[in-house]
Design goal:
- This protein is α/β, with parallel strands linked by helices.
- The protein has 4 domains: 156 residues, Molybdenum Cofactor Biosythetic Enzyme, Chain A, CATH 3.40.980; 58 residues, Molybdopterin biosynthesis moea protein, domain 2 (Alpha-Beta Complex); 84 residues, Molybdopterin biosynthesis moeA protein, domain 3 (Beta Complex); 72 residues, Beta Barrel (Beta-clip), CATH 2.40.340.
- Helix content is 17%, strand content 33%.
- The protein contains 7 helices and 28 strands.
- Strands 7-4-6-5-9-8 form a 6-stranded mixed sheet, with no helix packed on it. It has a 6-stranded mixed sheet with strand order 16-13-17-21-20-18, with helices on both faces.
- A hairpin with a 2-residue loop joins strand 20 and strand 21.
- The chain is elongated and about 95 Å long.
Length: 405
């Protein structure tokens, strides 16, 4: 069996970023920029005031105080009526452009006077409370690099620069297929011997979290022809992800169906728990994954293998989840000869995080995923004692929580 690292290396070596597309800036949040954005403007476009106060010439002030004549008023959204001359001041508001001749602003609370004259009690340095033209961005600056994820800050900056559309990597379209005679579809009551179809919906949700666009192929019964037909439905998708039917049982038909459709299979077994049986291959240059059928195994293998592949397809340079080291609060056991990816909760414990298992680690216990903040990576045949540290793959942003909660 391959190690997780060997399997992931094989997978990512066969994944390439998808093409690009122009999208409206309002739809670009969370997407990966495909080309650098070069500014066509300066920000700010002209010197402006950072305070409500008075625009002045710094040379008109002195240590003992100075009295200046108020000759105008400038509000944000308007331009000064004329330049400022020596001995003069103009009332100015935050964000308003400085008049020519002015090189400083005095806050209104630091002066005395009226609408006609103001007294400035001490010397003012040139540049005081002035936002310089181009201090944020200059024309020709690369303001967002290719490969950068567009967050709210990038959206704001690009809007300020007038970029209504940006070029981003295309989001992968993922066809999700579940197989099994025993599966009852959502919205129906399971008949005797049936269980609810959970994998389709959990895997589609994981695809969305990874930045992809999922489409359901529904449930295929355990018949080779039916599975082949559903796989062919995925021809327009960028990736196929199926669950169940990849082990060695009589009704485990997914690998045979993939081969019949023309797929080249690259790997099968990975030395991990949960989730040893996993298939990865290529079908008409599209990646195809066959994940285990047990719900937790399907979700964990998606996290470790499918999610990085999807992120690489969508242009991300960082494809892995963040990892931390956490102190074990209760013994963590991983029996058997495969590395464990065990569900743990995390809580702040002094200067570091403490980790404890979510409970029973059975591969069908979905609540272990609901409760999990991360996956503890535990070597085979190991008991990690209280106080030792364990590596944890983070599944969600951490919130401060007291130990034991």
């Amino acid at each position: 069996m391959l190690s997780v690292e060997e399997a992931l290396d094989q997978i990512l070596s066969r994944i390439r970023p998808l093409g690009t597309e122009l999208v409206e800036l309002t739809a670009a949040l969370g997407r990966v920029l495909a080309e650098p954005v070069v500014s066509r403007r300066e920000l700010p476009p002209w010197p402006n005031s950072s305070m409500d106060g008075y625009a002045i010439r710094a040379d008109d002030t002195r240590a003992g105080g100075a009295e200046l004549v108020v000759v105008g008023r400038i509000i944000a959204g308007s331009m000064p009526a004329r330049a400022l001359r020596s001995g003069e001041a103009m009332r100015i508001f935050t964000g308003a452009p400085l008049p020519d001749g002015a090189d400083a602003v005095v806050p209104q609370e630091d002066v005395t006077g009226d609408d006609a004259r103001v007294t400035i009690p001490e010397r003012v340095e040139a540049g005081a409370f002035v936002r310089r033209a181009g201090e944020d961005v200059r024309a020709g600056d690369v303001v967002v690099e290719a490969g950068q994820t567009i967050s709210a800050a990038e959206v704001g900056l690009l809007a300020a620069l007038g970029d209504a559309r940006v070029r981003v990597y295309r989001r992968p379209r993922v066809a999700v297929l579940s197989t099994g005679n025993e599966l009852a579809e959502l919205g129906t009551e399971p008949e005797p011997g049936q269980i609810p179809n959970t994998n389709t919906y959990a895997l589609m949700a994981q695809a969305v979290e990874a930045g992809a666009l999922p489409v359901s192929l529904g449930v295929a019964p355990d018949r080779l022809e039916a599975i082949v037909e559903r796989i062919r439905w995925a021809a327009s998708a960028d990736m196929l992800v199926s669950s169940a039917g990849v082990s060695v049982g009589e009704l485990d038909l997914v690998r045979e169906a993939l081969v019949r459709c023309g797929a080249e299979l690259h790997l099968w077994k990975v030395a991990m728990r949960p989730g040893k049986p996993i298939t990865f291959g290529s079908l008409a240059d599209r990646p195809v994954f066959g994940l285990p059928g047990n719900p937790v195994s399907a979700m964990v293998t998606f996290e470790l293998f499918v999610r990085p592949a999807l992120r690489k397809m969508a242009g991300w340079s960082a494809v892995d989840r963040p990892r931390i080291w956490a102190r074990v609060l209760e013994p963590i056991r991983n029996p058997g000869g495969r590395r464990g990816y065990l569900r743990v909760t995390l809580a702040r414990d002094g200067r570091e995080y403490g980790a404890r298992l979510t409970g029973d680690q059975g591969s069908g216990i979905l609540r272990s995923m609901v409760r999990a903040d991360g996956l503890a990576v535990v070597a085979p045949d190991t008991i990690v004692p209280v106080g030792e540290r364990v590596e944890v793959i983070l599944l969600r942003a951490l919130e401060p929580r007291a130990p034991g909660r």
